[in-house]
Every structure is written in structure tokens, then in C-alpha cells.
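WARN retry 2 of 3 for item q-0093 after timeout on previous attempt; input resubmitted unchanged.
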Amino acid sequence: MEIVLYYAPITCALAPYITLTEAKAEFEARPLNFRKGQNKSADYLKINPKHKVPLLMVDGQPLTESTAIQIWIARAFPQANLLPADPWQELKAISLMSWCSSGIHPYLSRINAPPKVCDLPDAPDSVCRLAAENLAETFGIADDMLAGREFFFDHFTAPDAHFFWCCRRATQFDFPLSDYKNCWAHFERMQGRASVRKLLAFEKEVQDGFAKAA
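OK item q-0093 returned
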């Protein structure tokens, strides 16, 4: 089975990189330089008209959207226990990943690029302020969910990888994540995992390569 993950630094494509690593899957990560528009090249648009990452190619077949990709990885590598075994808990894990994608990620995107939300001259400050207020609510909910726990379930699962990206991106925007002690503890705990250390080393290698090619 040939597995290729299309990836870009900083993006949420880090989550499937982490879970593929946790699963001990053999895969190729193909970096895209968004600054140079590689995600909108003719070749990439042929396989992914959405021009986003992550994109997973499995034996030449494309799969997009983080939650679907994570479910495929969990099913393809059941020994990794990337989703809870209990059917109800599995659905709750899928719900968590969907929440990361639809309930947290959009606010981070607004802070990253306010003009994509509103292009009025004085809008960026308001867009960022409102996004930060909504992030405060979401991280408060997550903080309650993580109270007394190392992970969202009784062991590491795919939602932990996606939530790690949410936390990391928030800190890159100077969001006060440390105010949410359980989220912060989860973030620090994740940084200690071998899969995350591998991801961060790979990301740095890719970024250094992009800088040299600039």
C-alpha cells in the first residue's frame, strides 16, 4: 500500500502526520510551499481542486478533510488504537475531531487572515478580537473536558493530535493558552511524544529547505 501525505508547515496537516507516525505506517510526506502557490499549481489541482492540505493519497486515490483522513488511518492501522474501541466512544472521538475542524479551526483562520472574513479597512482588529473571544469559549470547554485526564480518552487517540495543532496555532497568535491549565498540560504532554518530536523536526527541515530555495 502506497501512502502519500501532502503537507504544508504550520497547517493542520501535522495531525495526520502524527497519527501515521503513531501507527508506524510507511508513508511519504510531500511538502507544499503555500507562499509560492504550490497548492494552486495545475498538477496539485488535478488531484485536489480544494487546493488545501492535508490530502492523503492511498494507492493513487485522494482523500481530503482531516476527520475523514484520521478515520481512514485508524481503520487501516487498528493495532495503533487511534480511536476508542467502544462504538459510542468512537463516535465521541469523531465528534471531537469535527469540533476541532469546525468549532476551533475557523477562529484561528480568522486571526491568521482577517481580510478573508471582512475586507473593510478597520475590520481586522474587530475580526481578531471576536475570534479570540470565541477561542476563549472553546478552550474553556476543552479545559473542562481534559480535567483530571492526560488525553481526551483513556489513551492517546487521533483527536489529541488535532487538538494539539489547535493549541499550537493558538500560541503562535499569542493566545493565552496557559490560562487554561488542562489544555496547557495537554499541549506540553503532546510535545513530549516521539511522534510529535518527529513532526516538529520534519517541519523545521521543510521550512529550512523553503528558505534556502527562496
